[in-house]
Design brief:
Layout lengths: L2 H7 L11 E3 L1 H9 L1 H8 L9 H22 L2 H6 L2 H19 L8 H25 L5 E12 L8 E13 L4 E5 L7
Parallel strand pairs: 1-3
Antiparallel strand pairs: 2-3, 3-4
Helix pairs in contact: 2-3, 4-6, 4-7, 6-7
Length: 189
């Protein structure tokens, strides 16, 4: 069996909720940066209020992943027919409106910021489309998955603590015989 078949047939193990605990990358990162902040977020359940960065990041992820799904599974023509600008704009505004509803109609961004973020998103999409062939549509590359689930014990001393997450974009380079994981980031940091 080749590596692609092996990966595609791999079943992510199920959590044993009675004996195992799960953490996310965000939890692990928060703990590493500041255990007090982690406790506020995950023990005291102090929620991070919605913000424009979350809406923007989610809309960008969904747009780029939809494009990649079309390009690799339906063909370049389908991907080229996909209106990535429209998909992003509609997704971004819908996510923003949904988050505003969660906080009882309180806007957390100004109209100027919404326009700025929308324009930034459209420019990112233009950049992505312009250079997609250089990074993603190389000869011998196969799409293994989008939002591929993972479940692993990140530390051998704590085998019952599992890191649970999803990988944004997983490719296989048949030329170099290696798996390439792309993590889509839209952070301003």
């Amino acid at each position: 069996m080749n590596i692609i078949e092996n990966i595609q047939k791999t079943v992510v193990p199920e959590m044993d909720w009675d004996t195992e605990k799960n953490i996310s990358y965000t939890q692990l990162s928060a703990w590493s940066e500041c255990p007090h902040r982690w406790a506020q977020m995950y023990i005291d359940k102090i929620k991070t209020p919605p913000n424009i960065y979350f809406s923007f990041g989610t809309a960008m992820h969904e747009t780029l992943q939809e494009y990649m799904e079309l390009m690799y599974n339906k063909g370049q023509q389908h991907a080229d027919e996909f209106d990535a600008h429209k998909h992003f704009q509609e997704g971004f505004l819908a996510l923003y409106k949904g988050d505003v509803e969660k906080v009882e109609g309180v806007h957390f961004a100004t109209p100027k910021e919404l326009i700025e973020f929308t324009n930034d998103g459209l420019e990112i999409i233009d950049f992505f489309l312009k250079y997609r062939q250089d990074h993603f549509h190389k000869h011998g590359w196969k799409l293994l998955g989008i939002e591929m689930p993972i479940l692993i014990a990140p530390h051998e001393d704590y085998p019952n603590v599992k890191l649970m997450g999803k990988l944004d974009l997983v490719m296989f380079d048949e030329t170099l015989h290696r798996v390439v994981i792309w993590d889509i980031k839209t952070s301003t940091r």
